[in-house]
C-alpha cells in the first residue's frame, strides 16, 4: 500500500488557520479598544451625576442660610465630600483627560473656597451675587465632561468600523478560496462516494492534483476503492454461506416456536405431544421418532416410517436431576439438527414436569386445607364441648343425688346458651373458611367478612388495609381473619361504640401492625368472665403468627386491640 505525504506549506488547515488568526487579531484589536474606552467611561455617569448634584447643593445653601443656619456646617461637609469625591479626584490622575477639563475642575475648587467663606460669615448678599457665576462654572465643567465622553465614543466607533471592514474583506476572500479550492473538489469526492454506495466501483476520475490534503485524499480514495472491490467480492460469497446457515436456524426457530405454541395453548395431553413429534419429524425429515414418558406409559408415542432400520439415537430428558422421559429418533441421509431435537426434548420434558408438579401442588393444597379445617374446628369447638361435658355431668349428679329442680334448670339454661354460642361460632368459622377459599386477596377477604358483621350493628365499621396478601399462607390468613372477627364482635357486643376501625399497615419501625379500635366505653379488665374465651383465642392465634398481642384502653376513649407481626415475607 502506497503512503502519500502532505507538504506542510501547502496544507489547507495551515492556510485556513492563518485567515482565522488574522481575523481573530482584528477582533482582538476591536475588543481591546472597546474595553479600554468602556473602562475609561465606567465612571462618566457617576462624574456627571456628582457634578450635577453640586448645582443643587449650591442653591440649597441659600435656603439653609435663611431658614436653618444651624445645618450650615453639616451641609458644608456634605458639599466638600461631593466636590472632593473619589470620582472627581481621579480626574487629576487621568492621562487621557484634556487639560481644559482638569483646569475647570481646579477652578471649581478655588471658587468654592471663596463661596464657603460667604456661607460661614452669613454674607447673604455676596453669596447671592456669586451663586449664578458659580453655577455657570459647574455647567461648563459638566459640559466639558460630556464632550470628552462623546469624543471617546466617536474614536471607538471609527476604529471598530475600520476593523469590521477588514474582517469582512478577509471573510469574503476565505469564502472564495473555500468554494474554489475545497468545495469543488469535495463535490467530486461526494459523487464518487455515491457511485461506490450504488456498488459501482468504476467511479468518476478524481483529477485532483493539489499538493494538499484533498490531493492526498483523492489518491487514497482511489486506492481504497480498488481494495474494497476485492473485499466486496469475497464478502458476497461469505454472505451467501451465512444466509444458508441462517435459513436453517430460522427454520429451527420456527419449529421451536410452533412446538411451544402447541404445548402452551392447551393442557398437555398425548394428542398435543403427538402433534409436536409429527412437526419435528416433517421438518427434520426423520425416518422415525419416539417418546417414552417414565411412569406414564399411556403417553408413550412411536412414529416409525422405516421399520427395517434399527439405528435409533436417543436423548434422556431430566429436569432438576429428575428423569422425566426419553426421546428417540432415526435420521435419513441428511444429518438432523441435534440441538433442535434436544431443545424440543427439553420443552416436552418441561411441560410434562409442570403437569406432574401441578398435580402434586393440588394434592398438597387439598391436604393443607383439610388440616386447616380440622385445626380450626378443634380450636374453636373444643372449649364448648368440654363445657357441655362438665354441665352434663353436673346435671346427672344433681338428678341422681340432689334432685334440685332450680339448679337443673340453671344448668339447662347454661347448656342452651353455650349450645347457641357454639352454633354461632361454627357458622362464623364456616364463613371464614368460605372467605379464605373464595377471596385470596387479604383486603377483599377482610372487607367481605366485615360486611357480614355490619348487618349486626349500627356502628360504622371502616377498613384500611395496606399489607400485601402474599404475607400470609392460607392458615395464617385464617388466623388474621379470626382475630379481626373476634375483636370486632367484642366491640359490637360490649363496647357500645359508634365507630369501629380495622387497620392493617406497616408502622414507622417496619413492623406489620393489625389494629382494631373503637370509641366505646373501653375495658375494665383484661381477665375474661367464666365461659368466655375470645381473648384467649386471639392471644393463641397471635402466638401462632409469631406476633405480639396487646389490648388496652385509648386515651381519647374506647379500646385498642393490637397484634404486632414480624415480616412474614422476609421470614419465608
UniProtKB/TrEMBL annotation:
User: Which reaction(s) does the protein catalyse, per the Swiss-Prot or TrEMBL entry?
Assistant: ATP + protein L-histidine = ADP + protein N-phospho-L-histidine
CDD domains in the record: HAMP, HATPase_UhpB-NarQ-NarX-like, NarQ_sensor
Report the locations given in the UniProt record: Cell inner membrane
- Phosphoprotein in keyword set: yes
Residue ranges annotated for the Histidine kinase domain, each copy included? 372-569
Instruction: Name the InterPro entries for this protein.
Output: HAMP_dom, HATPase_C_sf, HATPase_dom, His_kinase_dom, NarX-like_N, NarX-like_N_sf, Sensor_HK_TwoCompSys, Sig_transdc_His_kin_NarX/NarQ
Q: Which residue ranges does UniProt annotate as crossing the membrane?
A: 16-39, 155-175
Q: Which domain of life is it from?
A: Bacteria
The positions making up the signal sequence are none
Q: Which residues form the HAMP domain?
A: 180-233
One short Pfam name that applies is: PilJ
Q: What is its main location?
A: membrane
Query: What enzyme category does the UniProt record give?
Result: transferase
Question: How is this protein named in the record?
Answer: Sensor protein
Q: What is the lineage of its organism?
A: Bacteria, Pseudomonadati, Pseudomonadota, Gammaproteobacteria, Pasteurellales
Amino acid at each position: 500500500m502506497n503512503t502519500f505525504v502532505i507538504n506542510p506549506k501547502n496544507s489547507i488547515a495551515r492556510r485556513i488557520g492563518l485567515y482565522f488568526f488574522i481575523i481573530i487579531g482584528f477582533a482582538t484589536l476591536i475588543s481591546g479598544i472597546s474595553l479600554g474606552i468602556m473602562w475609561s467611561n465606567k465612571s462618566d455617569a457617576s462624574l456627571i451625576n456628582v457634578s450635577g448634584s453640586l448645582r443643587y447643593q449650591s442653591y440649597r445653601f441659600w435656603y439653609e442660610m435663611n431658614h436653618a443656619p444651624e445645618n450650615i456646617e453639616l451641609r458644608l461637609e456634605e458639599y466638600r465630600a461631593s466636590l472632593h469625591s473619589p470620582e472627581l479626584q481621579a480626574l487629576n490622575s487621568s492621562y487621557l483627560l484634556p487639560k481644559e477639563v482638569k483646569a475647570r475642575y481646579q477652578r471649581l475648587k478655588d471658587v468654592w473656597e471663596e463661596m464657603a467663606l460667604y456661607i460661614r460669615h452669613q454674607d447673604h448678599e455676596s453669596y447671592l451675587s456669586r451663586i449664578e457665576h458659580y453655577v455657570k462654572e459647574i455647567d461648563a465643567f459638566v459640559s466639558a465632561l460630556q464632550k470628552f465622553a462623546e469624543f471617546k465614543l466617536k474614536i471607538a466607533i471609527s476604529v471598530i468600523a475600520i476593523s469590521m471592514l477588514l474582517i469582512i474583506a478577509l471573510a469574503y476572500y476565505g469564502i472564495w478560496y473555500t468554494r474554489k479550492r475545497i468545495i469543488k473538489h469535495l463535490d467530486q469526492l461526494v459523487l464518487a462516494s455515491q457511485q461506490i454506495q450504488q456498488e459501482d466501483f468504476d467511479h468518476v476520475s478524481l483529477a485532483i492534483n493539489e499538493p494538499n490534503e484533498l490531493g492526498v485524499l483523492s489518491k487514497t480514495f482511489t486506492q481504497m476503492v480498488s481494495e474494497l472491490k476485492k473485499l466486496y467480492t469475497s464478502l458476497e460469497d461469505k454472505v451467501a454461506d451465512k444466509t444458508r446457515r441462517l435459513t436453517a436456524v430460522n427454520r429451527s426457530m420456527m419449529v421451536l416456536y410452533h412446538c411451544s405454541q402447541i404445548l402452551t395453548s392447551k393442557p398437555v395431553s398425548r394428542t398435543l405431544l403427538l402433534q409436536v413429534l409429527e412437526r419435528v419429524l416433517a421438518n427434520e425429515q426423520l425416518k422415525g421418532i419416539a417418546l417414552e414418558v417414565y411412569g406414564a406409559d399411556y403417553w408413550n408415542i412411536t412414529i416409525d416410517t422405516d421399520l427395517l432400520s434399527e439405528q435409533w439415537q436417543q436423548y434422556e430428558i431430566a429436569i432438576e436431576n429428575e428423569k422425566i422421559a426419553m426421546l428417540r429418533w432415526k435420521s435419513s441421509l441428511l444429518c438432523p439438527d441435534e440441538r433442535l431435537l434436544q431443545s424440543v426434548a427439553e420443552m416436552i420434558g418441561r411441560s410434562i414436569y409442570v403437569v406432574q408438579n401441578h398435580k402434586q401442588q393440588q394434592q398438597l393444597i387439598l391436604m393443607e386445607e383439610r388440616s386447616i379445617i380440622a385445626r380450626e374446628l378443634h380450636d374453636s369447638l373444643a372449649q364448648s364441648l368440654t363445657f357441655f361435658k362438665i354441665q352434663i355431668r353436673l346435671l346427672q349428679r344433681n338428678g341422681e343425688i340432689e334432685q334440685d329442680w332450680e339448679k337443673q334448670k340453671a344448668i339447662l339454661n347454661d347448656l342452651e346458651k353455650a349450645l347457641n354460642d357454639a352454633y354461632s361460632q361454627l357458622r362464623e368459622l364456616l364463613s371464614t373458611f368460605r372467605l379464605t377459599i373464595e377471596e385470596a386477596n387479604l383486603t377483599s377477604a377482610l372487607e367481605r367478612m366485615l360486611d357480614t358483621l355490619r348487618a349486626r350493628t349500627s356502628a360504622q365499621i371502616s377498613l384500611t388495609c395496606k399489607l400485601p396478601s402474599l404475607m400470609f399462607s392460607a392458615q395464617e390468613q385464617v388466623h388474621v381473619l379470626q382475630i379481626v372477627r373476634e375483636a370486632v364482635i367484642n366491640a359490637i357486643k360490649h363496647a357500645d361504640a359508634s365507630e369501629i376501625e380495622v387497620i392493617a399497615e406497616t408502622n414507622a419501625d417496619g413492623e406489620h401492625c393489625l389494629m382494631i379500635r373503637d370509641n366505646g366505653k373501653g375495658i375494665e379488665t383484661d381477665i375474661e368472665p367464666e365461659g368466655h374465651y375470645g381473648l384467649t383465642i386471639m392471644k393463641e392465634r397471635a402466638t401462632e403468627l409469631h406476633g405480639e398481642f396487646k389490648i388496652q384502653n385509648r386515651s381519647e376513649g374506647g379500646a385498642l386491640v393490637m397484634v404486632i407481626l414480624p415480616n412474614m415475607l422476609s421470614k419465608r
